[in-house]
Design goal:
Largest sheet: 8 strands, mixed, barrel
CATH architecture of the largest domain: Alpha-Beta Barrel
Number of strands: 22
Radius of gyration: 27 Å
Bound molecules: ligand C2E, magnesium ion
Helix content: 40-55%
Structural class: alpha/beta
Distance between the termini: 77 Å
Shape: globular
Length: 566
């Protein structure tokens, strides 16, 4: 067990020598891997912790380790990802180990792993989760089988069960748990899981089986005596209770959970389908913005199918030139002049017709396809804007994933050079999500982009979690006030909020633009509040690239004739 694996040494031998961890002693395992998962070097403790298969192949293949599938998947994702990660690995023999993965700064191609053996689950009962004491995945099958036999027993005399006294399962998932584990460490993550478990216990009775079936996933079974109303009511109470802050090691953690509810009614053939239904409902709860419960509807299975089909078609859509950009005008509120356009992506699917970006962008983000599509959007927008008359700007939406490889500033620079567009005519729009997923990397890249003289707008401000402190930390030049505020601008409180965002923006030296302006009443109010610019159907719907020229000409004529936009 003492020899390190050097079967797949990287080409630079000098680099490998520097990174030789094979002589490291102690209770922590260390390994250095290259980008193919091959061991450059490892100490004996690591090989012991990850089992001997690693030693045999010289490669760290998560799926060849005796891991639970959820752990194998997490490890595989972490190995191919670019972030540092803290993982909790559950082995099938009931042992749990913790792994920290860090990218070596010296090279993008090498990964440093340190592993600690933390805690063994109780050998006495392999069906119990060591951390929470709840039933684990091994117990799941048994629990579901019991549910199936209960149903057969209850339905036998009548030939059918009434859906409102059908048993139900609740699949409870902690929102953004991975982020807590990654940023605060597994010890805090574990303490949080215990607290979540005890809150769940507070709301349920001992007779309702409660299992922990994944890292942050809990399953609650409600038997047939509980009616549909109870299941929904309980789910709402769980969402409510989990939205209250947790206190872990003097830190306040705000998490929240999403819940999928499925009833074991006569349309559900078996317990495996029941579990799939709860999972689909859970995905729906997350798509709708988390911190909520959703009940499975048959349409969700159809939606999931559509989503899968879109996922497959999207891979070829770029090559088949099915994407195009449309441009929505932005107007200065003081002069009434046209100042630029926001580029918005459209997908014309050959069979399904126009697919909304609200539907396909999240899919592109989940599959990672947004990286290729996003790069195309930046170049395309720059090429088109370079044909517009002087000074008109183009704003481009950029997804958090486009910051992952650290090269967004270079991609933007290349697009500017290829198109000859002056950098001050480009604006990058980012959403609040970015500032939470990877704030340090985001800040560094945004600063570089800003140094290039490209403007940076915070999109949809007010819909997420961004606070005043975030706004001042990042080099934003503009705040885009979300349309939900503009539409609500009739009531006094929302109006006050909008004014507040506008004065906050201007005190931080940022311009403000209100989105979704549809009526002249909204236009007037925003003008009175001191907002700088607007965008919305009142001015124009997004235009095809070919219609931009005409629109610009019309605006110029109107201004020359003394008639400003709107
Ligand atoms: P967004 O960036 O906030 O874009 C504004 C959305 O509001 C656009 O929807 C626009 O058509 C719509 N809108 C504009 N004025 C009005 C109005 O007066 N009333 C109403 N009801 N809606 C209005 P769209 O084009 O469907 O885009 C939706 C979202 O998809 C965008 O929101 C943006 O987050 C995302 N998106 C669009 N294109 C791209 C892209 O190229 N890359 C990325 N990453 N995301 C994109
Ligand atoms: Mg936008
Ligand atoms: Mg927006």
């Amino acid at each position: 067990m003492s020899q390190p694996q050097t079967a797949c040494l990287p080409d630079t031998a000098g680099q490998a020598n520097e990174l030789d961890v094979s002589s490291f002693g102690g209770l922590t395992g260390f390994a250095v891997l290259d980008q193919n998962g091959c061991l450059v070097s490892a100490n004996a403790r690591l090989l012991e912790l990850l089992d001997d298969r690693v030693r045999g192949s010289g490669k760290l293949d998560p799926f060849s380790l005796e891991l639970h599938s959820h752990s194998a998947k997490e490890l595989a994702d972490a190995l191919t990802g670019t972030d540092n990660a803290n993982l909790q690995l559950d082995f099938s023999n009931g042992v749990r180990r913790y792994l920290q993965l860090g990218q070596l700064r010296a090279s993008r191609r090498l990964l440093l792993i340190s592993a600690t053996h933390f805690e063994e689950s109780s050998q006495a009962d392999p069906e119990l989760d060591a951390l929470t004491g709840l039933g684990n995945r091994h117990r799941l099958q048994q629990t579901l089988s019991r549910l199936e036999s209960d149903r057969t027993r209850l339905s036998a005399p009548h030939g059918s069960t009434l859906s409102n006294d059908a048993p139900a399962i609740l699949l409870v998932d902690i929102d953004r748990f991975k982020q807590i584990n990654d940023t605060l460490g597994y010890r805090i993550g574990d303490s949080l899981l215990k607290l979540v478990c005890s809150r769940l216990r507070r709301l349920t009775t001992e007779s309702d089986p409660l299992l922990r079936i994944g890292g942050d996933e809990f399953l609650l079974v409600l038997h047939a005596s509980d009616d549909a109303h109870n299941a929904i009511d309980l789910a709402e109470r769980i969402v409510d209770l989990m939205s209250r802050p947790f206190l872990v090691e003097a830190q306040q953690l705000d998490i929240g959970v999403s819940i999928g509810i499925a009833f074991f009614d006569e349309q559900t053939p078996d317990s495996a389908t029941l579990l799939q239904h709860a999972d689909l409902a859970l995905q729906q709860a997350k798509t709708r913005g988390r911190r909520q419960a959703c009940i499975f509807q048959p349409s969700m299975a159809v939606d999931a199918q559509r989503r899968r089909a879109l996922e497959i078609d999207m891979r070829r859509a770029l090559a088949l030139q099915q994407f195009r950009l449309v441009y929505q005008p932005q107007v200065d509120l003081r002069s009434g002049r046209l100042v630029g356009f926001e580029a918005l992506l459209r997908w014309e699917h050959p069979v399904r017709g126009m697919v909304s970006p609200a539907e396909f962008i999240p899919i592109a983000e989940d599959t990672g396809e947004i990286r290729r599509i996003g790069a195309w959007v930046i170049l395309q927008a720059c090429l088109q804007a370079s044909l517009w008359p002087d000074g008109l700007k183009v704003a481009v939406n950029v997804s958090p994933l486009q910051f992952d490889d650290g090269n967004l500033p270079e991609h933007i620079d290349t697009a500017l050079q290829q198109s000859n567009l002056p950098p001050e005519q480009l604006e990058v729009e980012v959403t609040e999500g970015l500032l939470f997923q990877n704030p340090d990397a985001a800040l560094a890249q945004l600063s570089r982009i800003r140094q290039m003289n490209v403007d940076i707008a915070m999109d949809d401000f007010g819909t997420g979690y961004a606070s005043l402190s975030h706004l001042s930390r990042f080099p934003f030049t503009k705040v885009k006030i979300d349309q939900s505020f503009v539409r609500g601008a009739v009531d006094d409180r929302t109006q006050a909020l909008v004014s507040c965002i506008i004065s906050l923006g201007s005190s931080l030296g940022m311009r403000t633009l209100a989105e979704g302006v549809e009526t002249s009443e909204q236009y007037r109010r925003l003008q009175e509040s001191g907002c700088d610019a607007v965008q919305g159907y009142l001015i124009s719907r997004p235009l095809e690239a070919g219609s931009v020229g005409n629109f610009v000409e019309r605006c110029t004529r109107q201004i020359q004739g003394g008639d400003v936009a709107a």
